[in-house]
């Protein structure tokens, strides 16, 4: 029997499925979360749910929000089931499910973001949290600042009361709060960015300064932008995941599957209070930078090491990549020789041990995490995860052959054809430009490295450029697998 998910049917769910033990009708909002994708619901919302199960944080419920037209479809699905979510944990040996309920509403998606601005201006909201992807911060890697020439940012500077971006909406809400004599809320990034709080502060304050320097100063002085590190592998939801939820007994239009691992490390820097997430497993630390460096470099960059190779070799999932002898050998050698030497230990965790943990997580056969999902938006993920390691290695005189091969594999993938001749569908917001550069690189490899918005001065480094050209030539002449096997074989020689 399958139960359609709603407040009214919670008691009818199969006994094996966990559910809220708190009265959702008595929850009041304290957080607006922008970007209600799978990751937020499996991670930050889950931590809050665990607190609520203990009778705590009932005044910290979540109002969901989005700023893009496509967010409306998710809003419709969640509103129809009272903003409840079924989480399905995929351990290697078993599955378990629970329904969580810390989210109590989803704001309308509308031009000008008026509903979002009004909600954030309410002094009851003390945290505005974000999962808007690594590429959603309008960060210009060539300047290290806000991309003020981006059309969205220019729009928000010209129309501060009807912004198009979440950051413009944040500035507009903070303007209303300041005018009303209310304190600001904390803005908490939950995206995989090195120094995500610092980048968020820079984006918000710089955007405010374009229209109201006094407001920008107030935000910078009184606001808070805590850094954090988030970690949980959460695949995309499709027909298979919806069918899995139904087999478990829940008719959920937007269920979430996730691995049996979570980590959240947070800088304790909030200007209007916060939930006690540490009571349910989160870590408050002044060393967030070290935790996030370890995670972003070993896990997130590690994903990019294998995903492009897997896509080119028609290997469908990350777990399948780890079962492929050559791709797994590529992962291990790049980690050992080029990534781990650029990572400092954190309390209780050695980088080499963390690599072993990540390898086990990637190899979990129950998690159907596609190479296509992990390879998506390489223009943000390589820029944020891989290239900083390359820069450090070049500065220190370290090994760069493996990461240069990874960049050549990405370039070859963006040309749009797998080694078996099948086409790769567009998989990046900048796909057309990437494909043009990748195809030009077949005859002149440096065409790829001349994408200054991605590589900047790194693309002109003679040592990196020579290694990239050499690996791309091998890939084009011999194929992806011989190139990978040749590199990994150096470890066995």
Automatic annotation (TrEMBL):
- Taxonomy, superkingdom: Bacteria
Name of the protein in its database record: Mannitol dehydrogenase family protein
Native organism is: Pukyongiella litopenaei
Can you give the residue ranges of the Mannitol dehydrogenase C-terminal domain? 288-470
UniProt keyword Oxidoreductase present = yes
What Pfam families does the record tag this protein with?
Mannitol_dh, Mannitol_dh_C
Q: Does the keyword Oxidoreductase apply?
A: yes
User: Which UniProt keywords are present, listed alphabetically?
Assistant: Oxidoreductase
Matching PANTHER family, A to Z? MANNITOL DEHYDROGENASE 2-RELATED (PTHR43362:SF1), MANNITOL DEHYDROGENASE DSF1-RELATED (PTHR43362)
């Amino acid at each position: 029997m399958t139960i359609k998910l709603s407040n009214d049917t919670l008691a009818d769910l199969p006994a094996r499925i966990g559910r809220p033990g708190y009265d959702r009708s008595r929850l009041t909002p304290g957080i607006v979360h922008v970007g209600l994708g799978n990751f937020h619901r499996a991670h930050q919302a889950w931590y809050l749910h665990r607190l609520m199960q203990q009778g705590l944080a009932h005044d910290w419920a979540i109002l969901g929000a989005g700023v893009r037209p496509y967010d409306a479809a998710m809003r419709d699905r969640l509103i129809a089931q009272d903003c409840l979510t079924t989480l399905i944990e995929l351990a290697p040996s078993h599955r378990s499910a629970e329904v969580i309920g810390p989210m109590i509403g989803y704001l309308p998606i509308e031009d000008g973001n008026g509903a979002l601005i009004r909600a954030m201006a309410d002094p009851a909201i003390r945290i505005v949290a974000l999962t808007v992807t690594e590429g959603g911060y309008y960060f210009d890697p060539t300047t290290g600042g806000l991309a003020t020439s981006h059309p969205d940012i220019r729009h928000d500077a010209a129309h501060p009361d009807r912004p198009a971006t979440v950051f413009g909406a944040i500035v507009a809400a903070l303007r209303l709060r300041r005018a009303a004599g209310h304190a600001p809320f904390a803005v908490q990034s939950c995206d995989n960015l090195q120094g995500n709080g610092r980048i968020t502060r820079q984006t918000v304050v710089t955007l405010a300064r374009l229209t109201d320097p006094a407001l920008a100063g107030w935000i910078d002085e009184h606001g808070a932008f805590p850094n954090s590190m988030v970690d949980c592998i959460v695949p995309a939801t499709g027909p298979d995941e919806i069918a899995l939820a139904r087999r478990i007994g829940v008719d959920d239009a937007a269920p979430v599957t996730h691995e049996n691992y979570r980590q959240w490390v947070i800088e304790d820097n909030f200007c209007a209070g916060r939930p006690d997430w540490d009571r349910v497993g989160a870590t408050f630390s002044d060393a967030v930078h070290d935790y996030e460096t370890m995670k972003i470099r070993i896990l997130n960059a590690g994903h990019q090491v294998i995903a492009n190779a897997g896509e080119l070799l028609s290997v469908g999932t990350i777990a399948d990549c780890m079962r492929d002898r050559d791709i797994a050998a590529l992962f291990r050698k790049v980690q050992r020789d080029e990534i781990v030497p650029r990572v400092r230990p954190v309390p209780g965790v050695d980088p080499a041990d963390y690599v072993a943990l990540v390898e086990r997580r990637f190899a979990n056969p129950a998690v159907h995490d596609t190479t296509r999902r992990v390879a998506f938006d390489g223009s943000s993920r390589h820029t944020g995860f891989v290239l900083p390691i390359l820069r450090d290695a070049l500065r220190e005189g370290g090994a760069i052959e493996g990461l240069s091969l990874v960049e050549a594999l990405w370039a070859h993938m963006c040309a749009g054809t797998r080694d078996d001749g099948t086409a790769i569908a567009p998989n990046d917001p900048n796909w057309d430009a990437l494909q043009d550069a990748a195809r030009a690189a077949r005859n002149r490899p440096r065409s790829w490295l001349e994408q200054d918005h991605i590589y900047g001065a790194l693309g002109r480094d003679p040592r990196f450029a020579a290694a990239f050209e050499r690996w791309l030539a091998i890939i084009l002449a011999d194929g992806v697998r011989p190139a990978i096997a040749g590199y990994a074989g150096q470890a066995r020689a």
